[in-house]
Records
---
Amino acid sequence: MQQTAMPAYDPRDPKEFASRDEIIAVQTARLKATLHRAYAHVAPTRVKFDQAGVHPDDFRTLADLANFPMMVKDDLRQAYPFGLFAVPRTAIRRLHASSGTTGKAVVVGYTEADLDVWASLVARSIRAAGGRAGMTAHIAYGYGLFTGGLGAHAGAERLGCAVVPVSGGMTERQVQLIIDFEPEIIMVTPSYGLAILDEFRKRGHDPRDTALQIGIFGAEPWSGAMRAELEAGFNINATDIYGLSEIIGPGVAQECVETKDGPHIWEDHFYPEIINPRTGAVLPDGTPGELVFTTLSKEAMPIIRYRTRDLSCLLPGTARPGMRRMARITGRSDDMIVLRGVNLFPTQIEEILFEQAWCAGHFVIELSRPHRLDEMLIRAECRPDHWAGTPMEDAAHRCAHLIKQRLGVSCTLQIEPPGALERSLGKAKRVIDRRLKS
């Protein structure tokens, strides 16, 4: 692994190293202004506040925010396309949107000031990961309505990096550009990072011999075992960036290279809470639950208490003492697998698979109900140097037994030959649930 860089204080961004008291003061002032602006200019938000019997004047301290209603993704869909904007259309400089595959798309607008803040926060994130002006950033997040590519691009340029805007896909070309252009930074989803790693080896290139030093991975949950695989495979420092389109995109939180102990939330722009997913009650720091975010500086589309469905907990700041950290995302409350009364997440299975010397890291979980009971099939791909051309039944049985011991669920595990599973070019689809069709 590359020598860990120690980011230096940047005088252009003093709030990054502000004290906890300074951050709380900023949050209180900005949150008060955000509540008033949303109430005055966003009709659906005003209706929700009135129905809950609260008014922005009721907010005096951060604890008062718990009295205000929460937003869910359906609120954003019902407001499609521009119902949550707090500014005239003429003030909008960019629109992003979700795919809308499960309903109407979620549309997010940005003013000139919003884009400026976003670029600054991604630049701050890249710097916290060890990036510096003069480096080259290879961006393999998707470009377009998805916020990943353009968000990373603007932040890298703001920091002073040269950008290779390759986007996702064309994996052979990704490898060639990394070899030829010698970027020090790669920004990509962890699952597609593994696909690029595989392509290096397939083409007979040692991925450890590139100029890459820093990997900034996000857009999907990933395990510590996957981090270790990426770090060892590329000889880099791998850090976690967190964001979501509804709030701003990538750059809501970033893991610092000197500690690698979970992303620090940029709390001067986003106020986090952890709630009980079932009751909605606010939980104390250190208690696992669902992440909720309120934007503090968004002009175009202020978001109040948005339920992300991401499961984590809030921890004290370390490398950035004034900013709290979020623990690694264990999954989403809406992607939890419930199998015969047992709750589990794909990342738990991922951790066990990565412990197996034969596992290449690519896997898919297939759920079915062929008779009366749920069944789980895990298809996991084998490394080329462990594949002998015959089914690895003993290794599959041992791994399935280990999953039963640790997670309490029975499964069938099938070891697939190298290259058998479809590669993700963005966010990996880990679970295929056929039970509704059974």
---
Amino acid sequence: MNPMDEAFMRIAIEEAELAIKHGNPPFGAVIVRDGQTIARGHNTALTDNDPTAHGEVVAIRNACRALNTILLDNATLYTTCEPCLICTGAATHTRIARVVMGAVIADAPDYFRHPEKGSLLRVAPHLTLPFEYTTGILAEECIRLYTDGNPR
């Protein structure tokens, strides 16, 4: 674990709380490179009527715009929950080097309607992912996002 993992995960949690405030599912993310926050994002799927506007994707879009590139080499994605296949694909496509997760889908099975559709941890054994991943950073705080009756 990187000593800054908890600090950056707290930013992702703040983003998830913004998503809740705006009536969206509680997913937040932050992109970091060289110890600096490049971009933040939270789920806006419901308010934007965009099924791809997951917190991780929004943060990746914001980071790519901020850096004027489609590649995020050497960046770390912090996310409050295990990325779905859309978000895993975006992280893979942009060449993110590391993904740090708070909760994982198994932590809140009642919240996730379709875990069988896949997620990072479900596909990891079957793929050679181009990034390393870490789970459980501020897990209890992140799990509360998905067990406190927040929007889906």
